[in-house]
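Q: How would the structure tokens look for this protein?
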Amino acid sequence: MANYKKSTTPDLLKIFAKAAAEQGEALRNADPKRANSRYRTMTKTYLELKSRGPAAQKEVLSLFDHADGYVRLNAAAYSLDFDPRGALRVLEVIDKMETGLLGFTAGMAVKEWNKKHSAKVNPTQN
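A: Here is the predicted structure in token form.
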């Protein structure tokens, strides 16, 4: 088990990226136990980055250009709260360029984000 507190920020990014890629592989192979395990690893890793302050948290943005689509997807999803414009751009590209679960998930993330935030602007609309 990784000791996230003792890991360097670059090591945390590697752990996050590896977990995201492995989660994508697990989802493609219909292995929910492994996918959930990798999700927990990503969450713990991201929370450690966030606890180190904005500079460490923003290092997740460096994964927007990663070769693996699931790494880009998860980096963008975790970045929505502090860089929504950049994260949405990544998610929209994945939605347009990828098929299957990856593209669908990115598209749903964009749709839900837009719905949530349009409700804040227009609270009387459903």
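The first helix runs from residue 9 to 28.

The chain has a mean pLDDT of 93.

Upvote if useful.
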